[in-house]
Amino acid sequence: MKNQLTKLNIFSLKGVQMRTFHITWLMFFVCFFGWFGLAPLMPTIRAELHLTKTQVGNTIIASVAATIIARLLIGKLCDVWGPRKTAVRLLLIGSIPVFLVGLAHDYTSFVLFRLAIGVIGASFVITQFHTSMMFAPNIKGTANAITGGWGNLGGGVTNMVMPLIFAAIVGFGYTNAEAWRYAMVIPGVMMLIIAFVYYKFTKDTPEGNYGEIGYTKAKNGKTDWSALSDWRIWALAMAYAACFGIELTFDNVASLHFVDTFHLNQSAAGFWAGIFGFMNLFARALGGIASDKAGRKFGMRGKGLLLAGVLLLEGAGLILFAQAGSLMMAIICMLTFALFLKMSNGATYGIVPFVNTKNVGLVSGIVGAGGNLGGMLFGFLFKSSTITYVEAFTYIGYTVIAVSVIVLITRFQKQPAGDVAVDSKLAGAV
């Protein structure tokens, strides 16, 4: 596709490419803020709704379960509707349960609202898809990593900010039960604002929207489902489950872990959980940059080796975090495994756009769904009444190491010769 940028100036808003770059990560950020807005308030919600450990675990599972299907659908909708319309519609529909979750007054209604809110996690696929439209292959991994990382940052900011919003509302004389409900109005409003901005200031492609350039009509052919037979796609889905899936789980349980294990109050626990999320400010981008450099020097095999390496270090860091006997040691270990986890996120999507250039939307959706599937499966460990959080983190660490070995033996080869031309105009094949 023409007019894709070959350089990334993150301080620029000039041109539709850079406007879209900033707006799409901001959209993802706001969705993450709403998606995990309840997580740092769970100590209060748990007490008010009298939730057991198993029920809390079920809400964690519900919060990521809906996103698995949503991400698969969103990848296809981006192909058909275009990322702009898909983003706006997801924001408008997704804001409804965010606004209304305050109506939950028992376990059943609360878990259903968390399930519905989870749909907005599919915003990630839009961000990666839309960024791939705007940037050339030489910078695509870096651009995707930065937009993904800055969007994921919403999970860290919400852990820090929502307890402060909650405390401010309590300060105005409202009860704890009222405060967490009113606090969720804030991310709902943010989603409506960004929906308007996305509609007004972005385009589907550097040349214009799908309808303006006849792109939709040209793409009405059937989806090439043969891509599902490519083992590399499933290896990447497992890799993403082992990094982003754990990020989702950690965003959900971190505050509770710090409260229960180290006896912190809700605000302090939210702060340290937020520090984990703040690593996205640079760490995911670092993984994408490293992936691009490895690709230029060693080809696709280099990208695969990098991903295997950072996954291995992530798994080792998780095991050390689980065994930390003090708050300070836990924080140090958390920052260590967070660095490699988020680099793994970036390194995974440094490979995704090149695996099947004719079906980037489908591949992005499958790999993205893999992340959520991992988050859901790991959530079962935290709902068990017989497995402690410490044991759960240990089991997850060993699982990540096993996935790193799978990635290591997967051959991420360069594009076949027949696909080189397609790769040079990657977004046209998205």
Automatic annotation (TrEMBL):
Keywords annotated in UniProt: Membrane, Nitrate assimilation, Transmembrane, Transmembrane helix
Compartments it resides in: Membrane
Membrane topology, as annotated: Multi-pass membrane protein
Superkingdom to which the source organism belongs: Bacteria
Main subcellular location of this protein, as a coarse class: membrane
Major facilitator superfamily (MFS) profile domain residues: 20-415
Keyword ATP-binding among record annotations: no
Transmembrane segments annotated in the record for this chain: 21-43, 55-74, 86-105, 111-129, 150-174, 180-199, 231-250, 262-283, 304-322, 328-352, 359-381, 387-409
Family (UniProt): Belongs to the major facilitator superfamily. Nitrate/nitrite porter (TC 2.A.1.8) family.
The protein, known as: MFS transporter
Organism: Mucilaginibacter panaciglaebae
